[in-house]
Design a protein that fits this description.
By secondary structure, the protein is α+β, with helices and mostly antiparallel strands. Helices cover 58% and strands 16% of the residues. The protein has a three-stranded antiparallel sheet. A hairpin with a 2-residue loop joins strand 2 and strand 3.
Length: 88
Amino acid sequence: MSESNIFKVLADKQRRDILVMLKKGRLNAGEIAEKLGTTPAALSYHLKLLKDADLVMEYKQKNYVYYEINTSVFAELILWVEQFGGNK
């Protein structure tokens, strides 16, 4: 996914909140919905956009689906942003 699409996904506060939650470790959808105080349908929408942007990964374990941050995409994004920094 292109950087512009990633920034569109990151523009939403709830999606950023999901990423902050996942920074501490993987969570299932129920845990995320409870912490956000959102409906399963709304959460599903946000998680789909985050997955489509490769910002989160999904793991199925028994009857649960867990989500965790895809750190490799963030590393690439940091490298991309750093190109605009000044010379030191």
